Amino acid sequence: MNKKQKKMLTRIIIAAVLLIVLHFIPITGIPRFACYLAVYLVIGYDIVKKAFKGIKNGQVFDENFLMAVATIGAFALAVYERSGDYNESISVMLFYQIGELFQSYAVGKSRRNITELMDIRPDYANIENDGKLEKVDPDEVEIGSIIVVQPGEKVPLDGVIVEGNTTLNTSALTGESLPRNAKAGDEIISGCINMTGVLKIRTTKEFDESTVSKILELIEESSSRKSRSENFISKFARYYTPAVCYGALALAILPPLVNLVLLHNPAQWGQWIYRALTFLVISCPCALVISIPLSFFAGIGGASNAGVLVKGSNYLETLAETKYVVFDKTGTLTKGVFEVAGVHHNTMEQEKILEYAALAESFSTHPISRSLKSAYGKEIDQNRVTDVEEISGNGVTAKVDGISVAVGNTKLMKRIGVEAVECHQVGTVIHVAIDGVYAGHILISDVPKPTSRDAITSLRKNGIKETVMLTGDIDRVAQQVAGELGVDRVYSELLPADKVSKVEELLAKKAEKEKLAFVGDGINDAPVLSRADIGIAMGAMGSDAAIEAADVVLMDDDPMKIVKAIRIARKCMRIVYENIYFAIGIKVLCLILGAVGIANMWVAIFADVGVMILAVLNAIRTLFVKKL
Amino acid sequence: MKKSYKIEVDCANCANKMEEAAKNTAGVKDASVNFMMLKMKVEFEEGQDPESVMKEVLKNCKKVEDDCEIYL
User: Torsion over CA of A590, A595, A597 and A602, rounded to 10 degrees?
Assistant: First the structure.
């Protein structure tokens, strides 16, 4: 508890004790009034003060004002009716303050818990100076510096390990508790915890550009994108309070006038004013206004702890309504690690073909070029390569040592007028033409990730209507992978632009309320990621482009995380709706009961504070996502 | 230009009111208040001096919620 809250608690205790003591002291008349007024001021002076300031600033429907009017009104009624029952007025104020205290305590506590959960910010970096370690601010470390990370410390900056072996705990980033091994030469990202050995790391990025900073920035940004429910609630609050106030005014004036003028009965001003004051007590929108952003905040916090970064509460909302999931194949459902499985129909030595292919593809970042390079296995001298032309979705043409080389699929061969020999094995076939003559093809194959099949099955179990796979790969490979994984529909041999139009086609076909998610690995997917209702990038550690374009970022590349993300979103939305219906329902019920005189001010304040406490506790439930 | 400020406010509804007040301040293009992070993000109109605009924002916020603070 902070100072403000402690002071409030003391006031609450003093007022409660005084109220009980006064109950047993038989005083009447003016002294009684004075004693109770003193207690009222102990518990409520700040509210009254704020109410006056509010009026001065033109804030009539401020909750302080409403509470002040309701309690002072009840106090005045007790004087007017000579009942001497000041308890009600003071208790309403007392419970209101208890509610406020609870709210500020609970919100403060969950705010701390959630931010702690998301706190991956490293405090320092160790730099070796004359054999001694010196702690410096990560912000001040320049690119290319050597930093030392000791066991138990966070890796402060992205870099490459130059010395040392260790196991890394990446759970703060990925939610994955299985440690990873790392050795000299490996890339390492900030935010991991070094568990066993001392590491020397050559930094490759400044702190601002490091993974940790990117993630923290993303989480902070997530707040500015508000969900429809949040906007609904703040709009609702803007109208609800004035509406209830006018209702109260009408209730205080109209029925007595009707009694007096039309029915010629006694006006019963006291009774109707009391009911109107009850209205004012219920008019505070606190429970709603606090519980909705708290639910989303806890949801985003819980998700990020599980390795699912959601860029805003609006995306959490959309994710919960997802009915169609479209996957990119390579790197998403499959491992994306292509290996050369064989060279067929070759007119020259295998090594020679691989050398030409690897050199021609050496400027490309496509996974295929990587596997060609690793199959070639030797240092690549890019000076030997000239006139590189990458033809999107077809392949590459280039000159290697002055000889023209074309590396790509059947379309490319057709384009340059070379007849290709089809391969009988399933995999990606890379045809190579050297100097305009067919030189053979290289078979590259990719395997599905071990959890892909389970992910598709459990997506279906979780109410996803259709799973679709898009790929630039040839139809035969696509069909085989799709069959193996149980994907509903496949579109193959697509250029990156075709993927966008396919997604647009799917978007046009579905109902407005059913959302479409696209899952990709972030390479070449940016346009599709931003076109879909919700773009999910996976395995995005270190890939800035994907983090930029996607709405939801999965920190590791396990497809099961997609299911988890959807389940987290659904749980969060369920709690949000529970709170909305519950809070509005109880308030409306109390308003009706108050208007007909069944609910008195006691019921009203219990309803108000009780609903708020329950809604806040319910909202905090969103944080627990581990078992989903 | 966008800037982010740390704020201090007690209730969620007051945070919404602060957001409204900030949005309606001259020189502010858009503003958003995150009650959970206790942060206010302000986007300024072209050619405005953030410092003087923020003084106005604080004044307007104080009007709707006396108990708030923006750390400039």
Answer: 40
- Contact across the interface for A114 and B36, Cβ inside 8 Å: yes
Are A302 and A550 spatial neighbours (Cβ–Cβ below 8 Å)?
no
- How far apart are alpha carbons A243 and A246 in whole angstroms? 5
- Nearest CB among A103, A104, A223 relative to B37 is that of A223
3-state secondary structure of A215: helix
Alpha helix ranges (H) inside A416-543:
452-461, 475-485, 496-509, 526-531
Q: How far is A59 from chain B (nearest CA, A)?
A: 6
Q: What is the pTM of this model?
A: 0.78
* Predicted-complex ipTM score: 0.83
Res. A468: pLDDT tops 80: yes
Q: Which strand ranges, in their side-by-side order, compose the sheet holding A132-136?
A: A132-136, A125-129, A146-149, A199-203, A159-163, A187-188
pLDDT tens digits, A535-580: 998 875 546 666 778 889 888 888 899 999 999 999 999 999 999 9
Cα distances (Å, whole numbers) of residue A232 to A237, A276, A508, B19:
9, 27, 27, 15
Q: Which of B13, B38, B41 sits opposite A286 (nearest CB)?
A: B13
Higher pLDDT, A128 or A514: A514
pLDDT of residue A566: 94
With CB atoms and an 8 Å threshold, state whether B63 touches A57. yes
CB contact under 8 A, B13 and A57: no
Residue type, A318: T
Q: Which of B7, B30, B37 to mutate to test the interface with A (most CBs of A within 10 A)?
A: B37
pLDDT of residue A316: 92
What is the pLDDT averaged over residues A255-265? 84
Cβ contacts of residue B41 below 8 Å, gap of 6+?
Answer: A223, A224, B2, B3, B4, B5, B31, B32, B33, B34
Phi then psi dihedrals of residue A129, to 5 deg: -135, 110
Q: How confident is the model at residue B32 (pLDDT cuts 50, 70, 90)?
A: confident
Give first-to-last CA distance, chain A, whole Å: 32
- 3-state SS, chain B, equals CEEEEEEECCCHHHHHHHHHHHHCCCCEEEEEEECCCCEEEEEECCCCCHHHHHHHHHHHHHHHCCCCEEEC
Phi, psi of A434 (to 5 degrees): -115, 125
Spatial CB neighbours of A17, under 8 Å, sequence gap ≥ 6: none
Cα dihedral sign, A349-A350-A351-A355: positive
Q: How far apart are CA A184 and CA A164, in angstroms?
A: 6
Is the separation of the CB atoms in A336 and A449 below 8 Å?
Answer: no
For residue B35, which residues of chain A lie inside 8 Å, CB to CB?
293
Share the mean pLDDT of chain A: 85
Q: Please, what's the largest Cα pairwise distance for chain A?
A: 115
Q: A103 CB contacts (<8 Å, ≥6 apart)?
A: A286, A290, A612, A613, A616, B11
d(CA A404, CA A186): 36
Question: Are the CB atoms for A229 and A317 separated by under 8 Å?
Answer: yes
Structure-token pair, residue A159 = 């870099």
Residue of A nearest to B35 (CA): A293
| More reliable by pLDDT, A442 or A366 | A442
Catalytic annotation on A328? yes
Minimum-distance CB partner of A293 among B36, B41, B64: B36
Q: What's the pLDDT score for residue A541? A: 58
For the stretch A149-205, pLDDT in tens is 988 888 889 899 998 888 888 877 777 777 888 888 888 888 888 888 888 999 998
